[in-house]
Design brief:
single chain, 137 residues, mainly alpha, 4 helices
């Protein structure tokens, strides 16, 4: 009787564990989307702080990000994302990344006097030329 019980438990575990693995989301799609969105917002924020992005450029980039989010919500409203919809979303995200990169590198500065952000680094910043953590022994 005990052997049958142990055999039954083993069979349930062998069947149950793979089923849990198969029930997970495909490729962690939402996590990747969330990380990409966070990274894009951080890149825009850093560009504004360093002066590499003007406020107008940052506003346009944020509007583009909002349009991408709205489009994604619309696609997901029916409960599923088709292959074409995922392809369209990825294409829009890549295009948005290219726009951010292009705007950061186009040399339109918010305030020419500040240069590359060297003098804007505060004493508490790790990259400060004198007080930063890199320069401590």
């Amino acid at each position: 009787m005990m052997k049958k019980f142990l055999l039954l438990c083993a069979a349930v575990l062998l069947v149950g564990l793979p089923a849990n693995a198969l029930a997970q989301r495909r490729n962690g799609d939402d996590r990747i989307y969330s990380n990409r969105r966070y990274n894009d917002r951080a890149r825009i924020r850093r560009g504004v702080r360093s002066g590499q992005l003007t406020r107008e450029e940052a506003r346009r980039l944020r509007e583009r990000e909002l349009a991408n989010r709205t489009e994604r919500r619309g696609y997901r409203s029916d409960g599923t994302l088709t292959r074409e919809e995922r392809r369209e979303i990825r294409s829009d995200e890549r295009q948005s990344d290219r726009h951010i990169r292009r705007e950061i590198r186009d040399d339109d500065r918010r305030d020419r006097r500040r240069g590359n952000g060297y003098y804007r680094r505060g004493a508490g910043s790790p990259s400060h030329p004198v007080f930063g953590r890199r320069n401590r022994n």
